[in-house]
Amino acid sequence: MDLQRLNGLYEPVVVRALETLWGKSRERAGGSTNLLMAHLLDTAAVAELLWDDFLAPSTRSALDEVAGGPGGGRRLFAWICGVHDCGKATPTHQRLWPEGAEAVGQAGLTWVERSAAAGAKQQRRWRHDWAGGLMTRELLTGARWDADQVDWVWPLVAGHHGAFPSLGEVREPPSAKGQLRGRGVWRRVQQALLDVFTREVGFAGLREVEPVVAPSRALQLQLSGLVVMADWIASDERFFVGMDDLALVSPSASRERAIKAWKALGLHGGWGILEVPGPDEFRNRFGYGPRPSQAMVVEAAHRMSCPGLVVVEAPMGEGKTEAAQAAAEVLAAKFGEDGVFVGMPTQATSDPMFTRTRRWVEAVDEQLSSRVVLLHGKRAFNREWRALLEDAGAYADEAFCGVDEFGLADDPYSSESTSREMPERQAPAEWFLGAKRGLLAPFVVGTIDQLLYAATRTRHVMLRMAGLVGKVVILDEVHACDVYMSQFLHEALRWLGQARVPVIVLSATLAPAQRQGLVDAYLAGAASREELRAQVPKPSGYPSVTAAWLPVSGEAQFQVEATDSWREDLPVEVRVVPEAVPGAGSSSAERERLQGEADARVGDLLAGELIDGGTALVIRNSVARAQSLYETLRERFEHDEVRLLHSRFTVARRADLTEECLRLLGPETPRPRGGRLILVATQLAEQSFDVDADVLVTDLAPVDLLLQRVGRLHRHEGTWRPEGLRTPKVFVTGFEPRECREPTFVYASEKIYGSHLLLRTAAVLADAGETWSVPGEVPRLVEQVYGADPALLPAAWRGAGEAARQEQEERDRSRAEAARQFLLTPYGEHEKRTLAGLHYGGSTAGSDESSLQAAVRDGDESVEVVLVVREEGDEVFRTLAGRALSVNGDVAPEVLDEVLGSVVRLPSKFTQEASSLSPLPGWHGHPWLRRSRALVLNASRTAQLGDTTVSYDNEFGLRQV
């Protein structure tokens, strides 16, 4: 930097201040103090690389528009990122490091410590981020910026540590008497710092920086996340070693450092600029030509004039995933999106989708598969994901823990990561593995929770939004979102709609009200309105696609089409198998007797249906019911003819069982004539489970879920089936029909689903011998059950039905209200124009995975444990298979997979008892196990949880003894 020129422009005390103000202490800058000006320019240089090599074309276009035209966005973006830490040119920051504070004082910048301390005590959050917000607001106003432009810029500075304060909050505490912001020469130094930085990044002055168009709040939130990203990268002391000589500080020096960091960190974008796929690309990607429904979805994407929402409704096995991927390519090419986020309903469904997504993007460009990130709380147990990490040894978080180390330890919105106690190792997508950064990777597969987290009032939520904007978002099985989760889904869709992010939603069974709610939320966001009720055309058939978008100026547009399935409708025989349900006051002996009778009846049924061989799928609504039935069936059938699958096996055993079931009941395995196979499962078999059974026995569930289960019947062509099972059969049990009264339901089903939907589903069950035409009748059945017509119920049921409806509505209202306290935007504030006060008021969810999941899912909390064994007299802990660990449980590399695979989730009723469990002593320093609770089993493979004894074996899984 030209010091001679600076001395000609400013008084000596100002120049000395610029030569002294520190941005990073020696301890956090590689041994040398990093001047504040150096850090600002470093961050601006990183921002330039983000623009060149990371931002989606759509984001660059949007920022160009904000800046006034093509080419202006890059420079504005660099300025906004760099200016974030200008608030460090205040006593509130400079007083925190004794060595730096002394040097600043010697340079002629002083403050009254007593007053500064009093102000800091009055408002502990008034630190450099809030000071910077106040400073930029005043200085930009002084530069004659339009008020609308000032109003959206200062919150980006004030909120760069994760939360956006209100204007009232950023005002300096009165008790500080100006000693935190600084008076006198401080004000001239602050003006000079901003002026010099502005010229160094290429502007003639602050007036020239002023944007032309105020961006939407969604773009502001994305921009804020990118500011944080640039700041965190520029705080890596490995590449940005402190520069304490202002003469050596320059944009070129910062760019050189930034390029070195960029290359070393392996940062990269996604697709870049894509060409719109031609008609042959579908076959090239997936190995077969598009089916009618897939071609319909792709054509709908082609017809959209701007980004919007695409709702795909099609039966199981129709190829919705490939249709969504092909449509995503079209939307990305048309609207300049650089990657994709795929949200799945569960961790179990995310894992195979991770594999499929890697295969898909590799077909687009073979170099892209290594850029796909798996993002959910248990990805460490995914073998494919961990294989990508084998060559990495350093921790992804360690290089980034020096972001503003002073005075933020007690800050609920600080940059200190709650996950630093358990950092993850680096991988090919290195930097993106750190806490809160996963969505920033170009291609991401995870649970839908990751998207829902972006709709919560949490610190650094801007990083999550920055990771979603600029991608195409694909959400699978959205019907699985209940009333509580839907509040977050709709909030996320509002933000994505305003950000003009293309969203593709997939479902086999979607109630009309759900479809309407999704479209309304997205279009309300696109219109920046609190509410928008669209007249969405009803699909005329099934499968169908509903595309909705809102041009910048104009009315909402819709493209609604339907076509035939690629397979003919199946006539499915639906029959009821009554089950005696114990009353509320029944003894445990009575309950066991009735359960045994119910299990025996299913055994009789299966023996008759499978007399000539065949395959059966039995789905129970609870693990205990599945285990009980399996115990009965294994005594009646040959051992190799019955399988059990549920969620209380260890992750390794469950993965092996799932793989075995998919193989035995999949399309590639020939069925031996006369052979029998029965799979007893829970809701795990309900979605994303590609098996083919001849007959289904299922507990009653809401009709959409019931139809999901029916979708496991006669799924593959060319499969041998016995003569008597060549027509699909469904036997529905788990409830007791009663003469001239409403039926009663088993406790597990009513607890999970409530009686309202169970009653209405029971009402549409066909009489014995009648059939459902599947998938053709799916929309009609779903609409009937989820509709409001009381006449669906028999007259004798209607009193109970009305009571159940009112109870369900009250429960839904209560759950929706409980969710709203965590929503990113409270009701009534969706039309605000800036981010100021976004985190003000309401409840704020924690930022760690478990706290976030508790916020977006309101089910009973449960705990995962790692099962280990210690027999009496044995000095060491052992794995379930008997391999030795050590006296403290230390895990050798060769047994790590076995230990990690021994994780099992306990029933929620044991959550309190499990809270006292802790890691084994030898796990405390282990990157994968240091937070894992150990449940120690004895020689008989049992353990005590409170007053209850539980056991584990590979046949039944975890169960209560």
Summarize the structure in words.
40% of the residues lie in helices and 13% in strands. With 961 residues, the chain is an alpha/beta fold. The strands form six sheets. An eight-stranded mixed sheet has the order 5-6-4-7-8-3-9-10, with helices on both faces. The protein has a seven-stranded mixed sheet with strand order 13-14-12-15-16-11-19, sandwiched between helices. Strands 21-20-22 form a three-stranded mixed sheet, with no helix packed on it. Helix 3 packs antiparallel against helix 5 (72-82), helix 3 (36-53) crosses helix 15 and helix 25 (588-609) crosses helix 26 (623-636).
Give the helix/strand layout.
Blueprint: H1 3-9, H2 12-20, E1 22-24, E2 34-35, H3 36-53, H4 57-67, H5 72-82, H6 91-94, H7 98-106, H8 113-122, H9 128-142, H10 147-158, H11 167-170, H12 185-200, H13 206-209, H14 217-234, H15 251-265, H16 281-286, H17 292-303, E3 308-313, H18 320-335, E4 339-344, H19 347-364, E5 372-375, H20 383-388, E6 443-447, H21 449-453, H22 461-468, E7 471-475, H23 483-498, E8 503-507, H24 512-526, E9 544-549, E10 557-562, E11 570-576, H25 588-609, E12 614-619, H26 623-636, E13 642-645, H27 651-664, E14 676-681, E15 695-699, H28 703-710, E16 729-733, E17 735-738, E18 741-745, H29 747-753, H30 755-764, E19 771-774, H31 778-786, H32 798-820, H33 849-856, E20 864-869, H34 896-900, E21 903-905, H35 911-914, E22 933-937, E23 942-945, E24 948-953, E25 957-960
Helix pairs in contact: 2-12, 3-5, 3-14, 3-15, 4-5, 5-14, 9-10, 10-14, 14-22, 17-18, 23-24, 23-32, 25-26, 29-30, 30-31, 30-32
